[in-house]
Amino acid sequence: MGIAEIFLAGLCLNATCDDDYIPSTSIKLLRFAKLEQELQTETLVITTLQNGELSGYETVNDTVVGTGIAFDIIKILQDKYKFNYTIVLPEDDTFLGEQSQKTAKKLLETKKVDLAVAFLPIIENIRNEIVYSTSFDVAEWAVLMNRPDESATGSGLLAPFTTQVWILIIFSILVVGPIIFLMVLLRARLCRDDKSEVYSLSTCLWFVYGALLKQGSTVNPRTDSSRLLFSTWWLFILILTAFYTANLTAFLTLSKFTLPITTPEEIGKKHYSWVTNRGNPVRDKIISEKNDEHIYQDKLIKTIGNLKVFANHSDMNILNTFVKKRKMMFIREKTVINHIMYQDYREKAKNGVEEEHRCTFVVAKFPITKFSRAFAYSKDFKYVELFDYAIQRLIEGGIIEFKLNENLPDAQICPLDLGSTERKLRNTDLLLTYILVGGGLAVALCVFLMEILWRVCQRRNKQKKKRKPHQTHFLANNYNAIIKTGLSNLTPPPSYQTLFKPPFYFKDEGGKKTNINGRDYWIVNGKNGFRQMIPLRTPSALLFQFSN
């Protein structure tokens, strides 16, 4: 009698136990003893799958021998119950599949084998066709991928803030300037008695931009409302720059690392290709959901995408061929991934690879999916209770969990953050700085060329304006043309009296001739009361006519 039976028998001595429990327990123990005797003479037919550390097989002297943790469990049961077994392999080396006649499940349905020894997924919609053993555990499936060269959060000047934060900062810069302008303008309109300065929109925009870059400003607000607006923006910029400086220092000095995916849904959304082995329960889960008409949403294939490969290779071949060379993501049980990474690390250490180059792969921290795993029996397997009883004891004793982690070290293998305390500044950290400098020089060069082109166009226009066009019309009818062509110094038309009187005749106006210093003049009384001397000789008369 085991420890559990002794404990139950002791409990049943209390008055709280039913009297019928002791006979039922005895009957169960007697039945188990009888099954144990029958099992010792049995040769069970077992099937299995190639699934890395969990289950597999190899041929030794023309005999198929099971390998992996699943057969370690069978070995424990064999030592307890003294049975023998033979292995029959499925043609398709899968549990579920499109070719249902060649799978391990079909061998169980047709009763060609007694049980399937592998860590199989418990799928509810096939429970009426086969029988599952006691569940071993609820396993997690994780993603193994190449370690990215840079963190997904970025590096350099943009790393401290997320994309959403940068968008909001740009939005605030564009909005705060017009808001300040409108508030100042509204205040000036409502308080007309107070002589407050109204800043232009360009001045407000330049203040917002200058405050962001700590350039200072010549704007000197005099009213309380304007000062509050300006000080609010200064306080916002002060807090923003403080957070940016602190985060930038942390990103450039610490070795915190993030992956390009943070949830299983991002594998499908970002169209990443992924791979797993043919005997993996993930493949069986996808096939079962495909055949189940009652599942309309939350299917695994919709979550992780359809860019899949079910490779018929060993785990290390998948790691080197599909993950390392083809940059695919490897979806596998978490415990198996730990074994794969540890084996890869040991091989690199044996080959003399430097410590900093050994952890070339990384595992995502989030699980892709979770479901229970167990052995599977045929419908008529009569030793189900006996096997489940022993498996339950192994689970409670922690034997299965111990076997899953038996060959792994206590330390975490190649964690996401490698824990290096020193980090040198790289060119990639200053890449945005180079882009800004190069972009600024390019924009300045373009503006400089545009200024030269503008100057050339202006000079050509001035030269065209200085040129005199050919005069093909009568000047008297085009006074504007005369002004533009520089003909404003022409002699004016003859005076009125020369057209209707004898030349230089002023006798009718009370004038008289006089000789002064040998020259002849007309002395004429003007309308303003002053006398006027008009020369009679031709050169002097012409000068007088022009000046008057």
UniProtKB/TrEMBL annotation:
InterPro entries: Insect_Ionotropic_Sensory_Rcpt, Iontro_rcpt_C
A Pfam match: Lig_chan
Membrane topology value: Multi-pass membrane protein
Any one Gene Ontology BP term: detection of stimulus involved in sensory perception
Entry annotated with the keyword Glycoprotein: yes
UniProt keywords, alphabetically: Cell membrane, Glycoprotein, Membrane, Receptor, Transmembrane, Transmembrane helix
GO cellular component: plasma membrane
Domain named Ionotropic glutamate receptor C-terminal: residues: 163-363
Compartments (UniProt record): Cell membrane
Domain of life per record: Eukaryota
Transmembrane stretches, start-end: 165-186, 198-213, 233-254, 431-454
Single annotated GO MF: ligand-gated monoatomic ion channel activity
Entry similarity comment: Belongs to the glutamate-gated ion channel (TC 1.A.10.1) family.
Protein name per its UniProtKB record: Ionotropic glutamate receptor C-terminal domain-containing protein
